[in-house]
């Protein structure tokens, strides 16, 4: 467990936020929580809430920032103290830091999480999912990562391992669902549709933490482009925070007769969506997300190793490489 982060998230609707000279008070669904005001360096409001101007003034006066997001985690705007450029130092360090070491951790941890997910599924079903040679290929990729010296090589094996993972996991599902591999939107099968919904929820959780740590969400480690850092950071978390819930629902037959495939896309009915969202709220672990983001922010500032954790059956697993 890394040290405590300094951003605080208020998500949902209807919270009442106020402060005294020393304390930030949040009343939400009848529960009152209080935090020492100096400990809140970045307040992140997701959804619709009521905040007193006194709380805004005191936070800004002490040098803290306040960020606003739509309910799905889409960034809307940020308030910073007058004349300040909050987070400029860490973003500059992020942009100038060589990404290869960080990218290798992402590829390594993602592959480990996927191998464990396949193993866990095999144990649950009592059958082998690998075809001949596939397991060896994935383990060879894992063992050879230290020898890959270019970003293109890392991206290539990351995509190869990801494609293989979904094709292998597809064998655990009823064939009539039509899921063979991960596809681009619009999806023509319910499993891909559920995966995309789950990844969107996970994306929203991660981008809030990334902005809370003042990192640039558009400056990726493995990828490039808009929101690339967020996409990088969700990769190791997908198997346990999204895939496990989706594949479990699919294998249990809970989507049978509860979706329609048109000429354009697959439509999930509200019953499936509600069941999936409930499962995802239980499986998306914000503590692990915050720890991973904090680890990255410390690593780019040369204050510690880059550490990525994920969760399998309630057991926290991790991959660590010293940033250098």
Describe this protein's structure.
It contains 10 helices and 10 strands. With 324 residues, it is an alpha+beta fold. Strands 3-2-1-4-5-6 form a 6-stranded mixed beta sheet. A two-stranded antiparallel ribbon has the order 7-8. The chain has a two-stranded antiparallel ribbon with strand order 9-10. α1 links the parallel β4 and β5.
Descriptive key words:
Ribosomal Protein L15, Chain: K, domain 2, alpha+beta, 324 residues, Four Helix Bundle (Hemerythrin (Met), subunit A), 2 domains, 10 strands
Inertia-based shape: globular
Q: Order of helices and strands, N to C? A: EEEEHEEHHHHHHHEEHHEE
CATH topology of the largest domain: Four Helix Bundle (Hemerythrin (Met), subunit A)
The strand line-up of the biggest sheet is 3-2-1-4-5-6
CATH class assignment of the largest domain: Mainly Alpha
Number of individual domains: 2
Question: Which stretches are low in confidence, meaning pLDDT under 50 for 5 or more residues running?
Answer: 312-324
What CATH architecture of the largest domain do you see? Up-down Bundle
CA-to-CA gap between the ends?
Answer: 21 Å
CATH superfamily of the largest domain: CRISPR-associated endonuclease Cas1, C-terminal domain
User: Which structural class fits the helix and strand makeup?
Assistant: alpha+beta
Radius of gyration: 21 Å
Identify the quaternary structure here: single chain
Q: Classify the helix fraction into a percent range.
A: 40-55%
Beta fraction: 15-25%
> Would you tell me the overall average pLDDT?
92
Count of strand segments: 10
**Treating each run of at least 4 consecutive H or I residues as one helix, how many helices?**
10
Largest sheet, if any? 6 strands, mixed
Subunit structure: Homodimer, forms a heterotetramer with a Cas2 homodimer.
Binding site for Mn(2+): 235
Protein name: CRISPR-associated endonuclease Cas1
GO molecular function: DNA binding; endonuclease activity; hydrolase activity; metal ion binding
């Amino acid at each position: 467990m890394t040290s405590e982060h300094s951003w605080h998230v208020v998500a949902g609707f209807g919270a009442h936020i106020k402060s005294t000279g020393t304390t930030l008070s949040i009343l939400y669904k009848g529960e009152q929580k209080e935090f020492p005001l100096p400990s809140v360096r970045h307040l992140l409001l997701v959804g619709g809430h009521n905040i007193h101007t006194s709380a805004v003034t005191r936070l800004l006066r002490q040098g803290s920032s306040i960020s606003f997001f739509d309910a799905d985690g889409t960034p809307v705007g940020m308030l910073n103290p007058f004349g300040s450029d909050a987070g400029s130092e860490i973003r500059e360090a992020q942009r100038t830091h060589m990404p290869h070491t960080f990218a290798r951790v992402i590829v390594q941890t993602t592959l480990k999480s996927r191998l464990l997910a396949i193993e866990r599924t095999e144990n649950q079903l009592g059958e082998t999912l690998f075809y001949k040679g596939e397991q060896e290929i994935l383990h060879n990729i894992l063992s050879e990562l230290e020898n890959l010296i270019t970003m293109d090589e890392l991206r290539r094996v990351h995509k190869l391992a990801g494609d293989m993972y979904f094709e292998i996991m597809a064998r655990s599902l009823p064939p009539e669902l039509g899921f063979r591999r991960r596809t681009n939107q619009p999806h023509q099968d319910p499993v891909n549709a559920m995966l995309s919904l789950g990844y969107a929820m996970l994306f929203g959780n991660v981008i809030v933490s990334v902005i809370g740590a003042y990192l640039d969400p558009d400056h990726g480690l493995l990828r490039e482009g808009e929101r690339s850092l967020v996409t990088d950071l969700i990769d190791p978390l997908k198997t346990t925070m999204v895939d496990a819930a989706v594949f479990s629902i699919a294998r249990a037959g809970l989507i049978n007769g509860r979706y329609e495939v048109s000429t354009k896309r697959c439509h999930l009915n509200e019953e499936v969506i509600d069941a999936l969202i409930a499962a995802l709220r239980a499986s998306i672990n914000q503590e692990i997300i915050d720890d991973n983001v904090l680890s990255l922010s410390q690593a780019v500032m040369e204050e510690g190793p880059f550490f990525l954790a994920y969760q399998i059956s309630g057991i926290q697993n991790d991959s660590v490489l010293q940033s250098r």
